[in-house]
Amino acid sequence: MNYPIPKEIRAAVAILQSAGFEAYLVGGCVRDLLLKQQPKDWDITTSARPDKIQELFPDSFYENKFGTVGVSTKSDDLALRTIEITPYRVEGKYSDKRHPDEVRFTDNLEDDLARRDFTINAMALTLIGGLAPSYKIIDPFNGQSDIKARIIRAVGDPRERFAEDALRIIRAVRLAAELGFQTEEHTVGALCQSALLLAHIAKERMRDEFSKTIMTKQPSQGLEALREYGILKIFLPEIEEGYGVGQNKHHIYTVWEHNVRSVDYAARERWPLEVRLGALFHDIGKPRSKFGDGPDSTFYNHEIIGARMTQKIMERLRYPAQVAAKVTKLVRYHLFYYNVDEVSESSVRRLIAKVGAQDMEDLIRVRMCDRIGSGVPKAEPYKLRHFRFLVEKLQRDPVSVRMLKINGDRIKELTGLPQGLNVGWILHALLDEVLEDPSDNNAEYLERRAKELAALSENELRVLAEVGKNKKIGLEEEEVAKIKKRHWVK
User: Fold this and answer.
1) I need a labelling partner for 69 at 20 to 30 A (CA). Which of 12, 200, 375, 391 fits?
2) Interval 346-362 mean pLDDT
């Protein structure tokens, strides 16, 4: 098979080989190549020590205790401007359950592969030959077989692998969800037994793996596994509170089922992380606000309770402040009211002011996720389309004299006219000219024309103003009609 390996990677491998060293692509990039997917990262491992790597690659840097040398390539591709090359190595104990206490270099590739997490990540691939290279895969732990069987399996004893680096517990779930694989039973058993080790892991690291899980094609697979394996209760117990909690006559699913179905819809639409988190957390406050049971149970103020819970979760997992604020806001306002004949423009303006114009589209997306998560067939019914129309209409600048690069005060100053009809007529007459030729909307031209218009009789000025008013009304109606057509509303 001819693997699509970038020229920068091929060149680095060739330089190492020509100097008499072994050099292999290793880890996730090999897995992705075998899956016929575009690798996100390219890692090279070699029999050369860091000092030799730096001799071969003068434009490089070495600033860590793990032997990894960063090689600058000056590639046009940003992802390939720095290549990481690491010597074969073995690792000592992991006292902090995350990093090895010591790293020792070795001459044996298989020793290096044995320290890796999962069989599908413990393969190496090298290029043999020049212009038309052939490829050799080193696979001591049967990673290729596990790829074919679509299985996540730990290298060696899974309990040892998870004891070395507890973050692998969440990574196993994330990889299974990302690739659509199943986790092998002994690895699952070790996951469940080792879950408490996550207490040793930095919240940022768990957050990153969790976010990657949410960004998969079907987040519910990863979320269900995190819950089933007892992992969710360790770092995100609030979302698990909805498991088995029934709702009322408006819902056919439990709170948990509703939330995971909602985030799956966001994933299906390929919406960003903030929308997916908003969809997952939007009803997180329901278990704590539930009153009564059965079809008439209520969840008053669950959006307020949920927003407080979301804020604490986002702070605990150390999401960036901007992301945390947005997700909290999406949860807080996801219950906005939008009946066509009952929603006024002023109420929509108030909502836009609270949420922020830039986040209104994502708020509507969370509402669509909420609908699909409830089991209804249509994400965007007429009334939600009409609400979207109102939001767009109210966010655009209307056709008015406010568009002009001159105002009434400046006209009074230039012409000596008192405040009155004449000033308003001049503004509308100027608007007519600008609507006809937008290039006229500059201060120099408008000031000169204002003086000329001020010299006209009241009757002449009124006629010109009426033309401007009528044109403004017509264009405003035309623009609103375009927005209605875009959203299929009347």
Assistant:
1) 200
2) 87
CA–CA distance, 176 with 152 (Å, rounded to integer):
6
Mean pLDDT (the chain, rounded): 88
Band (pLDDT 50/70/90 cuts) for residue 423 is confident
Rounded mean pLDDT of 242-258?
87
CA atoms within 13 A on the CB side of 304: 4
Question: What is the CATH topology of the domain spanning 241-395?
Answer: Hypothetical protein af1432 (1.10.3210)
Is residue 424 within 8 A of residue 400, CB to CB? The reply is no
Please report, for residues 117, 192, 197, 422, the alpha-carbon distance to residue 186 in angstroms, rounded to integers and kept in the order given. Answer: 14, 10, 17, 86
Residues 6+ apart with CB under 8 A from 179: 35, 150, 152
* pLDDT at site 392: 81
Whether domain 150-235 has CATH 1.10.110.30: the reply is: yes
Q: What is the 3-state secondary structure (H, E, C) of the chain?
A: CCCCCCHHHHHHHHHHHHCCCCEEEECHHHHHHHCCCCCCCCEEEECCCHHHHHHHCCCEECCCCCCCEEEECCCCCHHHCEEEEEECEEECCCCCCCCCCCEEECCCHHHHHHCCCEHHHCCEEEEECCCCCEEEEECCCCHHHHHHHCEECECCCHHHHHHHCCHHHHHHHHHHHHHCCEECHHHHHHHHHHHHHHHHCCHHHHHHHHHHHHCCCCHHHHHHHHHHCCCHHHHCHHHHCCCCCCCCCCCCCCHHHHHHHHHHHHHHCCCCHHHHHHHHHCCCCHHHHCECCHHHCECCCHHHHHHHHHHHHHHHCCCCHHHHHHHHHHHHCCCCCCCCCCCCHHHHHHHHHHHCHHHHHHHHHHHHHHHHHCCCCCCCCHHHHHHHHHHHHHHCCCCCHHHCCCCHHHHHHHHCCCCCHHHHHHHHHHHHHHHHCHHHCCHHHHHHHHHHHHCCCHHHHHHHHHHHHHHHHHHHHHHHHHHHHHCCCC
What phi-psi label fits residue 294: left (phi over 0), alpha (psi between -120 and 50 degrees) or beta? left
Length of the chain: 490
26, 42 contact by CB (below 8 A) = no
Q: Could you tell me which CATH class the domain 7-142 is placed in?
A: alpha beta
